[in-house]
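Subject — a protein and its fold
Encoding — discrete vocabulary of local shapes:
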Amino acid sequence: MAQFDVHHNLGRHKDSIPFVVIVQSSQFEGYRRRVVVPLVRASAIGPVSFPTFNPAFTIKGTKVVLHPLEIVSVSTGQLGKKVGSLTEAGQLIATALDELFSRAWQ
């Protein structure tokens, strides 16, 4: 389980949030939990006002949008099967998280 790996969401909202992306640094791989951000179906989230905060991706043919405001920590046992990686889009994800944590008050 590496940073920016995408996993199936096994939670109760899996219909509207089919995937999650791991955002924590691989430095913390030894822990039993992973910090993830939901990838919400684009059809469920509606128009996106801030594309740098909510970048869109296509995972397994499904258009999804990163939803940083729903960031959560889950146990590794709660993650579904790995379905891909967003490593190539890592900077887009880091920028969205930077907006959440650093630039929101500017």
